[in-house]
Amino acid sequence: MKKSLVLAMAMALGVTASAYAANPFSDVPAGHWAYDSISKLAAAGVIEGYGDDTFRGDRLMTRYEMAQIVARAMAKGANVDKLAAEFADELEKLNVRVAALEKKSDNVKITGEIRYHYKHQKNTNYGDKRYSETGLRSRLYFTGKVNDNWNYVGRIQNQQWFHKSDDDAVSNKGDEGTEFNIAKLEGRLGGVNVIAGRDDDVFANGYIYDGEHDAIKLSYGDKWYVSGGYGKLTDLNEEVADSAKDFWTAEIGSNIEGSFVNGRIGYLKNKFGNAGKELTNGDDNVGIWYVGADFNVAKDLVFNAMYLRSNRDVFGEKDEDTGVITNHETKKDGYVFGLGYKGAEASEPGSWGLTARYYHQGRGTYLAHTIDGETGFATGFKGWSIGGEVAVAKNMVASVTYYDTKALKGEQEDNAKAKVIWSEFNVFF
What is the pLDDT of residue 324? Predict the structure, then answer.
């Protein structure tokens, strides 16, 4: 290992395979693969042997010894920035000047993504009424290193609406808003992974909830894991003020790479505020069990399935004009089936993927669904989607998805249908 590190240092100093001054070390013969590099570094004063004229290249080097070599190489003008940052504390003890900026250069990282989207929707239950929108969403992520085990992550998001229209009017054109919508600490306490603060995440693959929430979340294990969380589903209050108070969730499952099947089982319970009670027939909570599995049925082909069961069979719908709430019977059950083939990797230009889903969910089985199609039916919805994505260039991914959904049968909902085309172009940096 010691000889490999010295060879890397020799390369940083520009050493070639040519012979230099005679090698002073008796245990490095002229035919050794590292002979030339060791000879050059010894002649330049970067490395020193032991008092018995040996180099002892197979001996593990201490951090202090390595710091001495880095210090001498820096004095010779070698480009060893990464090594200088790694051994900064030792170099300071050796009175080698390391600027604070060099030592902290990797302490804060900024990444981001930009998404342009276009949506076109047709609602057949309102006389084939059409709606369309275009918008640009920009996100900046700030990851600050607290220590070896903890990071702080923040996100600033700007949403611009270029166009929103239906058959009656054009609205929100030019509207925009900026918010600081992720602020969390994430790290480890012993063997437990911890996330605390405001986050943006999905529960039950997004079939129950996809959005922002204030919570503390814990998970333990890798191939086999158990996880849980407690907090507030804040996106529900964005839609209707005082609709959500707190929630808790728990899940156990497997995540074994190369396995034919991985599964999970979990539970989420959300307690409603006053507005939420009005929309749930006066009850103050909804609880949802779910069980799911992913099957690697062939190379690059994954089949997944999830079953959900709610404690709610009545859900309300509020008329925006009159304020009257009408209760609708809904199924307690839900299930989703999906197929995924390959997938676009942002770092691999030309990579692509296809997905297909079938949904059948009673209204009590979801709170803020992950799909971009229409789910706002009072009785729940069923339908399907198909989509594709491709990495058109490095860190640039385009995708389009078609959704065809309709309400589950119930009062006043038999003819409610919607068809949505959702397309987007994402840039990552």
Answer: 65
Largest CA distance in the chain: 96
CB 232 within 8 A of CB 247: yes
pTM for the model stands at 0.73
pLDDT at residue 410, rounded to an integer: 67
Region of 243 on the Ramachandran plot (φ > 0 left; ψ -120 to 50 alpha; else beta): alpha
Range of the domain at 168: 108-428
Distance CA 319, CA 323 (A): 5
User: What is the CATH number for 188?
Assistant: 2.40.160.10
pLDDT at position 225 is 97
What's the confidence (pLDDT) of residue 245?
A: 87
More confident: 205 or 245: 205
User: Which domain-ending residue is among 82, 103, 124?
Assistant: 103
What whole-number distance in Å separates Cα of residue 354 and Cα of residue 301?
Answer: 10
Phi, psi of 364 (to 5 degrees): -75, -5
Q: Is 23 exposed, middle or buried, given 0-12, 13-18 or 19+ CB atoms closer than 10 A? A: buried
* Residues 300/272, Cβ–Cβ less than 8 Å: no
Q: What one-character DSSP code corresponds to residue 84? A: H
- Tokens 């086999």, located at residue: 224
Q: Which two tokens stand for residue 198?
A: 């405001």
The one-letter amino acid code at 118 reads: Y
Q: Examine the domain organization and report whether 60 and 177 are in the same domain.
A: no
Where in 73-208 does DSSP place strands (E)?
108-123, 129-145, 150-166, 170-171, 176-189, 192-203
The domain boundary, picked from 39, 71, 103, lies at 103
Question: Residue 416: CB partners within 8 Å, gap ≥ 6?
Answer: 123, 124, 125, 377, 406, 407
Same domain, yes or no: 96 and 18? yes
User: Alpha-carbon distance 351 to 389, whole Å?
Assistant: 9
Burial of residue 93 (CB within 10 Å: 0-12, 13-18, 19+) is exposed
Check whether residue 138 and residue 73 sit in a common domain: no
The helix/strand/coil state of 276 is helix
